[in-house]
């Protein structure tokens, strides 16, 4: 009997020692509310993506840690699988994505040289340029998405440096299609390429800045670059953002999307001026945007699409307020008005044949 007790004590001690060397955090967001847009019935939508995630690390000694992250997206309103690659404001619901849409990666970290991760990872702009949109690229007030942006990229290795007095660098490399064995898609069309990305960021005191450039895999060398600047004055922060996109007709959103006239090749430019102002237990957000489309063409023939002669302009105005009920729970409201050059431009960005769209959104968010 004593031997059994001793064995159990030793086993428990060993298990405790093992657990002390590693840790796992379960986290997530649950968010829902109501959205009404011109041309759509009232529907339930989100401000922040609903997700549940598992993030962990193990101390390997000598300042080295092993890392992992798994993150699943879902639609809170009906329990279906979520897809965070859907642009804000399109009214999509229940569109299936990959099983671990948010993240699925493993890596190593060291305080001296930073961290490196392998698998499905946030695209660099997802964590950098969105910080200069007062709405953090969420809800009906979100910045206008370019047609070439991906929230996350698969088959990727990403490096992030430590902070050197507020300065950081990041880089990623994404594998393209297997050109030797793929009979369809980008490889067959001779449009395959690997993806690359680089980020330079600075955040120290009231001033923050970021710059990104990326070439999307299997995109016929399509590219996106953007810059963001922000300065804080007491409780208020003013931001500026510019993004330039050269979309030649392909995009990597976890799988190869073979583009056609429903998502054609184009050049896009987006300018944004934003304001974040802490008021009481919440924050007021506002932005003014200008977007320009040019050379919208059929990917296959190269012919300009009907209704897209010359350049097309879009202006968007957004205002919102988030009230924090606690550190983890908040309620929010947003309104926006988007003025498109014509109905074709409205359809390109929103999926609706309208030359203007008004939108209002209210809801609640809880983080755990």
Describe the fold and architecture.
With 368 residues, the protein is mainly beta. It has a single domain (24-367), classed as Porin. Helix content is 10%, strand content 52%. The protein has helices spanning 2-20, 124-128, 185-188, 343-350; strands spanning 22-37, 43-45, 51-61, 64-73, 103-110, 114-122, 152-160, 167-174, 195-204, 207-215, 223-233, 236-247, 250-252, 256-258, 265-279, 282-297, 311-324, 329-340, 356-367. The strands form 2 sheets. The protein has a 16-stranded antiparallel beta barrel with strand order 1-3-4-5-6-7-8-9-10-11-12-15-16-17-18-19. Strands 13-14 form a two-stranded antiparallel ribbon. It is globular and about 60 Å long. The two termini are 44 Å apart. Residues 5-20, 87-95 and 252-261 have low confidence and may be disordered.
């Amino acid at each position: 009997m004593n031997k059994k007790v001793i064995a159990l004590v030793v086993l428990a001690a060993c298990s405790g020692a093992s657990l002390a060397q590693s840790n796992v955090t379960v986290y997530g967001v649950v968010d829902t509310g109501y959205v009404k847009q011109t041309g759509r019935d009232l529907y339930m939508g989100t401000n922040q993506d609903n997700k549940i995630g598992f993030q962990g690390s193990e101390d390997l000694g000598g300042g080295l840690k092993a890392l992992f992250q798994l993150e699943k997206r879902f639609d809170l309103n009906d329990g279906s699988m979520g897809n965070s690659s859907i642009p804000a404001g399109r009214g999509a619901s229940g569109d299936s994505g990959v099983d671990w849409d948010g993240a699925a990666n493993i890596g190593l970290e060291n305080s001296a040289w930073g961290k490196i991760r392998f698998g499905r990872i946030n695209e660099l702009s997802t964590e950098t340029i969105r910080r200069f949109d007062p709405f953090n690229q969420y809800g009906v007030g979100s910045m206008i998405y370019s047609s070439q942006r991906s929230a996350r990229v698969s088959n990727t290795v990403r490096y992030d440096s430590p902070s050197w007095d507020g300065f950081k660098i990041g880089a990623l490399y994404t594998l393209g299609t297997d050109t030797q064995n793929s009979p369809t898609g980008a490889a067959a069309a001779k449009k395959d390429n690997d993806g690359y990305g680089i980020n330079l960021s600075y955040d120290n005191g009231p001033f923050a800045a970021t710059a990104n450039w990326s070439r999307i895999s299997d995109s016929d060398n399509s590219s996106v670059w953007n810059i963001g600047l922000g300065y804080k004055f007491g409780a208020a922060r003013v931001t500026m953002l510019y993004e330039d996109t050269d979309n030649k007709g392909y995009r990597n959103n976890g799988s190869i999307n073979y583009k056609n006239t429903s998502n054609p090749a184009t050049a896009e430019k987006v300018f944004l001026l934003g304001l974040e102002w802490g008021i009481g237990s919440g924050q007021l957000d506002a932005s003014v945007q200008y977007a320009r489309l040019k050379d919208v063409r059929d990917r296959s023939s190269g012919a300009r699409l009907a209704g897209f002669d010359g350049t097309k302009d879009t202006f968007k105005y957004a205002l919102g307020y988030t009230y924090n009920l606690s550190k983890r729970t908040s309620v929010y409201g947003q309104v926006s008005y988007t003025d498109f050059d014509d109905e074709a431009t409205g359809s390109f960005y929103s999926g609706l044949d309208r030359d203007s769209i008004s939108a209002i959104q209210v809801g609640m968010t809880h983080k755990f």
